[in-house]
Structure to design on (248 residues):
């Protein structure tokens, strides 16, 4: 399969940078509590200097949401929602070791991070404006349809794996106890996005290697290198960099 952002979306947001990490062999028993706490502490320290709404990473997403006709204070990107919860409650939710870690990393970098169960994704996955007939499964078990033009993660079967881009992930491909193969996607629009996403990806690869001892593949996607190829089951394992990927 392939993961990419549509040409239409990249034309509208030329500064978009995405980090992608593929990992196989995930289990719900890994102990990454110490690492999760460390990233959460980084986020707390940053919040001590001012609310998340003033972070340049969050401001870039707010501008994007406004351009899409969404009220930024009603629909927050996932990173802003996590930071807001951390500021108000001083804690982040606990769901699954990998999700908890990725949420903490997302808060530390103020960059939205999605974790998708690859076994629940059918064929290629593209971030693109919705047609309106895609099916989105909420965490409450209700089937919804994104509005036409709404940005979503759409697979070949017509499933929408997100609502309003980085606002709300689908329950269909959410990580669960039996999840083994995951695709982690981090997206940023701010001026230092490429450098920050590259550091975030490197951090995730290191944590996955230490916490789960699993093979990974990783890439940083830009307009010049927009596509990530996921090898078929049984393909070459190990950490790799997709063609055109730039590391710092």
């Amino acid at each position: 399969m392939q993961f990419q952002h549509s040409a239409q979306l990249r034309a509208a947001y030329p500064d978009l940078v995405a980090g992608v990490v593929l990992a196989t062999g995930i289990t719900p028993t890994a102990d990454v509590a110490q690492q999760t706490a460390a990233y959460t502490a980084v986020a707390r320290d940053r919040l001590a200097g001012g609310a998340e709404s003033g972070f340049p990473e969050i401001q870039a997403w707010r501008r994007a949401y406004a351009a899409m006709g969404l009220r930024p204070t009603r629909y927050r990107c996932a990173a802003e929602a996590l930071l807001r919860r951390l500021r108000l409650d001083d804690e982040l939710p606990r769901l699954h070791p990998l999700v908890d870690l990725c949420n903490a990393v997302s808060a530390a970098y103020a960059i939205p991070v999605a974790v998708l169960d690859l076994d629940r994704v059918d064929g290629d996955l593209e971030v693109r404006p919705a047609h309106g007939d895609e099916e989105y499964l909420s965490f409450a078990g209700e089937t919804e349809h994104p509005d036409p033009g709404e940005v979503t993660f759409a697979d070949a079967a017509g499933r929408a794996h997100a609502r309003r881009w980085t606002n709300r992930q689908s329950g269909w491909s959410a990580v669960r106890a039996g999840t083994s193969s995951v695709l982690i996607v981090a997206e940023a629009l701010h001026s230092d996005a490429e450098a920050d996403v590259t550091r975030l990806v490197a951090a995730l690869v290191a944590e996955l290697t230490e916490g789960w001892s699993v093979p990974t593949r990783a890439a940083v996607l830009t307009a010049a290198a927009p596509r990530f190829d996921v090898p078929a089951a049984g393909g070459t394992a190990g950490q790799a960099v997709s063609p055109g990927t730039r590391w710092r």
